Amino acid sequence: MRFAEYFRAGNEEHLSRLKARVYRIIFYSDTPAGKLFDVVLLWAIVLSILLVIVESIQGLPPVLKKVFEVMEYVFTFFFTLEYLCRIWCSREPRRYIFSFFGIVDLLATLPLYIGWFFGPVRYLMIVRTFRLIRVFRVFKLFSFLEEGDRLMRSLILSSRKIMVFFLFVVIMVISLGTLMFMIEGGRPDTQFRDIPSSIYWAVVTMTTVGYGDIAPATPLGRMLSMLVMLLGYTILAVPTGIVSAQFIHDRHIFDAVGPKCPECGSPVTDDMNFCPHCGLPQQSRHSVPS
């Protein structure tokens, strides 16, 4: 019994060390193995995205399609193994699984497996649609860029302000479209046949796209159209200003504070057990597992 307990304790200690080593390689890049893993993962992401783009070209030779299919199996196996390893060695698996990059990692591995459960003929278009999810691997590139991480964090922190602004724009577009329908809708040969068409015109005009398929004919309608055009130039700059202000604010905070999370660079304090942004345990700043 003592030997069995000793053997079990030895296995648990060995497994704990193995988890710590895998965790160090996957989540850090301060070792040769960690840097090599990041380089291999980066190239795998880029090549898989290029594979999706080239694979969409019509008229490819059958031999090349077969090669692409084999490469997709290899990439899917690699990303699946990476995803499972991250869950296995993570100190908080649930936090990683439901995080942004955890969801992206899962979506990057799903298309091939989804194809196994659908018929090759009847559901071919559905499977091809799911395979386009592989493009979401491009979001993982942000994890290799410090400025990309900061930009993503600024977008997340600014999301509430942007959503309020977006709601304001939606209300304004509906109001302007309805007003244009009231002005132009009474004409017999009008292009503003209903309120949805008028709202479509307001969106196209305010975003300065200007397809030209719907245009006002009355002087009052043209005056409103000019107002919407000028309004569009001022509105388009607001979300950029919101994100830029948040980005600069975060940059000043990062430069001012001392301790930072080694994973995402967010400011942390010594009494924090986990990073408030990425969830990485902060004990690793003091004693990184060997």
State the helix count.
10
The proportion of strand residues reads: under 5%
CATH class of the largest domain: Mainly Alpha
Unreliable residue runs: 120-129, 284-290
Quote the average pLDDT: 75
State the order of secondary-structure elements, H for helix, E for strand: HHHHHHHHHH
| Largest beta-sheet characterization | none
Helix share, percent: 55-70%
Give the full name of the CATH homologous superfamily of the largest domain.
Voltage-gated potassium channels. Chain C
Distance between the termini: 31 Å
Which properties best describe this structure?
290 residues, mainly alpha, Four Helix Bundle (Hemerythrin (Met), subunit A), Helix Hairpins, 2 domains, 10 helices, 68% helix, 0% strand
Task: Summarize it.
This protein has 290 residues and is an all-alpha fold.
What does this structure look like?
With 290 residues, the protein is mainly α. It folds into two domains: 2-143, Voltage-gated potassium channels. Chain C (Four Helix Bundle (Hemerythrin (Met), subunit A), Up-down Bundle); 159-256, Helix Hairpins. Helices cover 68% and strands 0% of the residues. The protein has helices spanning 2-27, 32-55, 62-89, 93-97, 100-116, 124-131, 146-157, 159-184, 195-206, 219-256. Helix 5 (100-116) runs antiparallel to helix 6 and helix 8 (159-184) packs across helix 9 (195-206). The longest helix is centred in the C-terminal third of the chain and has 38 residues, at 219-256. Residues 120-129 and 284-290 have low confidence and may be disordered.
